[in-house]
């Protein structure tokens, strides 16, 4: 096994749990702590990527471009990354993000829709950015299918493609097989992004590294959507124990999680009953807070709403469907009563 590059996404995936209210001061403190601890890439964007601030996904408290600029000014060695979902973010936001200091762009599509990312990879390369492809909800398709989608991203100019377990639904063998399929098919790097809904974020990250993953993601204190992501400080400790620490200061990351991030967290993401249901039903982790809120309005158990969304195969970006499904379930209950 070789040491993977670790990208910290507290300031992007963690933005979901923060309801997209990170402030400039918080960004400065978190970036300084990660940078000092040797984390080489720090992602800063609205939780749903560039231009995610909207009625559909939740409005940002502070403009993400200002947060990106603050992050860039606060880092001495780490590269600053942004996430972009084509259709939510456009090439205009990508240009501005690059001007404000982004050096890595992670372009995310549903795992069957890599073909919508060609123009965005093209522009990113013109802008001189490092490029990463994100195949979201990757539990929904088999390894060989994902390898073909990843090959499309490679042909568009991706420097790395990630298997993204957006639902935290994978078991270690699922993660291993998917990473292995991409490693066999591609000439570029392969990454893995975990969610902890089934309590397997660290285990799956480890399985991905065993299968050859070159890059993995973490969030301090696991602050991320659903039950959160693989905690960066835990990844560092585990890699260190394995003898493949890529240069991370384990104690400094523990301190950052404990003293910088924990005090500002609205709650500690854990695999509670709703989050476990997300992993169990294979639903996008970001639906958690929306589903809880809408279920409460309609007198539903969030779990029945999440299971039905999983049955209908809802994917990332379909947050508006949560309301439609809640209306259907509530009406069905009324008819029975
Ligand atoms: C925009 C998404 O939340 C990307 C991600 O982190 C995931 O799918 O997981
Ligand atoms: Mn995620």
By secondary-structure content and strand pairing, the structural class works out as alpha/beta
**Tell me, what's the shape?**
globular
Mean pLDDT metric? 98
**CATH superfamily (homologous) name of the largest domain:** Aldolase class I
Number of strands: 8
Organism: Thermalbibacter longus
Protein name: 4-hydroxy-2-oxovalerate aldolase
Catalytic activity: (S)-4-hydroxy-2-oxopentanoate = acetaldehyde + pyruvate
GO molecular function: 2-isopropylmalate synthase activity; 4-hydroxy-2-oxovalerate aldolase activity; manganese ion binding
How would you concisely characterize the structure shown here?
The chain has 337 residues and is an alpha/beta fold. It is 46% helix and 12% strand. It has 2 domains: 5-264, Aldolase class I (TIM Barrel, Alpha-Beta Barrel), CATH 3.20.20; 286-336, Helicase, Ruva Protein, domain 3.
Write a structural description.
- By secondary structure, the chain is an alpha/beta fold.
- The protein has 2 domains: 5-264, Alpha-Beta Barrel (TIM Barrel), CATH 3.20.20; 286-336, Helicase, Ruva Protein, domain 3 (Orthogonal Bundle).
- Helix content is 46%, strand content 12%.
- The chain contains 14 helices and 8 strands.
- It has helices at residues 14-17, 24-36, 64-74, 91-100, 118-126, 143-156, 172-185, 201-210, 232-242, 250-261, 273-281, 287-297, 302-311, 320-336; strands at 5-8, 41-43, 79-84, 104-110, 130-136, 160-164, 189-193, 215-218.
- Strands 1-2-3-4-5-6-7-8 form an 8-stranded parallel β-barrel, surrounded by 7 helices.
- The model has no long low-confidence stretch (mean pLDDT 98).
């Amino acid at each position: 096994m070789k040491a993977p590059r670790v990208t910290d996404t507290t300031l992007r995936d963690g933005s979901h749990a923060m309801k997209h209210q990170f402030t400039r001061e918080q960004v400065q403190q978190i970036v300084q702590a990660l940078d000092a601890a040797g984390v080489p890439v720090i992602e800063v964007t609205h939780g749903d990527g560039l231009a995610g601030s909207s009625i559909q996904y939740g409005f940002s408290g502070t403009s993400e471009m200002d947060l990106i600029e603050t992050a860039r000014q606060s880092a001495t060695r780490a590269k600053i990354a942004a996430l972009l979902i084509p259709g939510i973010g456009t090439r205009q936001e990508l240009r501005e993000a690059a001007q404000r200091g982004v050096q890595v762009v992670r372009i995310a599509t549903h795992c069957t829709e890599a073909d919508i990312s060609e123009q965005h990879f093209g522009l990113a390369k013109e802008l001189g950015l490092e490029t990463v492809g994100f195949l979201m909800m990757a539990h929904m398709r088999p390894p060989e299918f994902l390898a073909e989608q990843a090959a499309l991203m490679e042909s568009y100019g991706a420097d790395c493609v990630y298997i993204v377990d957006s639902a935290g639904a994978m078991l270690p063998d699922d993660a291993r097989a998917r990473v292995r399929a991409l490693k066999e098919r591609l000439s570029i790097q392969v990454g893995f992004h975990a969610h902890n809904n089934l309590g397997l974020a660290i285990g799956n990250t480890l399985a991905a590294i065993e299968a050859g993953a070159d890059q993995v993601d973490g969030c301090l204190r696991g602050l991320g959507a659903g039950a959160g992501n693989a905690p960066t400080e835990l990844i560092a400790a585990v890699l260190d124990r394995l003898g493949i620490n890529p240069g991370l200061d384990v104690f400094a990351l523990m301190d950052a999680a404990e003293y910088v991030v924990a005090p500002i967290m609205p709650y500690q993401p854990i695999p509670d009953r709703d989050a476990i249901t997300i992993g169990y039903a294979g639903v996008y982790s970001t639906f958690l807070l929306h589903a809880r809120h809408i279920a409460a309005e309609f007198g539903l158990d969030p779990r029945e709403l999440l299971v039905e969304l999983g049955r209908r195969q809802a994917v990332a970006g379909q947050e508006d469907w949560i309301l439609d499904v809640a209306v259907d379930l509530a009406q069905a209950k009324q008819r029975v009563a």
